[in-house]
Design goal:
The structure is a single chain. The chain has 11 helices and 11 strands. The chain is an alpha/beta fold. The chain has 2 domains: 243 residues, no CATH class; 46 residues, no CATH class. The strands form 3 sheets. The protein has a 6-stranded mixed sheet with strand order 8-7-3-9-10-11, with helices on both faces. It has a 3-stranded antiparallel sheet with strand order 5-4-6. Strand 4 and strand 5 form a beta hairpin. Helix 3 runs parallel beside helix 5 and helix 9 packs parallel to helix 11. The radius of gyration is 20 Å and the shape is globular. The two termini are 26 Å apart. The N terminus and C terminus are likely disordered.
Amino acid sequence: MEHPTNGKSPKINLEVETRDFKYYIFDWDDNILHMPTRIHLEKHLPDGSWIHHSVSTAAFAVLRKDTEQYRPPNGDWEQAFTEFRDHEGESESRFLSDTREALGRVLRGEITPGPSFEKLRETLREGRLFAIVTARGHEPDSLRKAVRLFIDVVLTPEERRMMIANLRGYRAVFDHYFEADSDEDELQYYLSLNRYHAVTNPRFRRWLKLNTGAETPEEAKQFAIRDFIEHVTHIMEKTGADALRHPISVGFSDDDVGNVTAVTDFIRSELSARFPTIKFCVYDTSDPTITDGRKVTVSGQLDLGL
């Protein structure tokens, strides 16, 4: 059943009741967007001296193990990653300003988007729940504002109407805890339901240490993924038995092969046993020539087209 609004798309799309439940977890850098953020290093010259050398995230992924030729300034990795943190007094976070620059360059055709760019666009258009899980150190609100910017500048007016119709449909069918007076209220509520984890953020690291004792970036991403799975299953439990009868799948995409391997092993060893009804799919987007990345189905019997 659809409630028409302007002849183009339904104001409330009740067809969402028949959908399967697909949730998504996205790494950001070089997966959604190729960001202009730079990592500041020092490079060893043949004469024995060191000079400042800033690199992109893609370049750092290649040279980070070469500790003989590259090092952080003054031996301090916080200085190397200063652009990957929020700082007191800035008018907006570096993450938001860099996202604005990267989106502008994509829309002008100057650079290509990351391999999961269109999947995030589809996720937002369909109103599905998601998590942003990144090795950066920004505050969750900085990540959330970047997603809102993505919605504002990437989605067409018709796609935004479809998104709001889907969100109203999900709330009408499954969520009886919130009333939205406007499209803006609907969008803000939806954004609040998602997760935004920057795993080197100091508060996130304290939370991780308190709950697991773990400290490595790979373990941090595992913890963030588990938190999102627990979050969405809690939401489904609140909606009642009807929601729990829907097929459930979760997709994770990352361009870092080490993270992909660690997450795949984590799903196989822990999550698939703890959540046996969920199908997990991992997408290795390290090869830009493969559209949407290389897919690995870790558990589950149904192929839902993730």
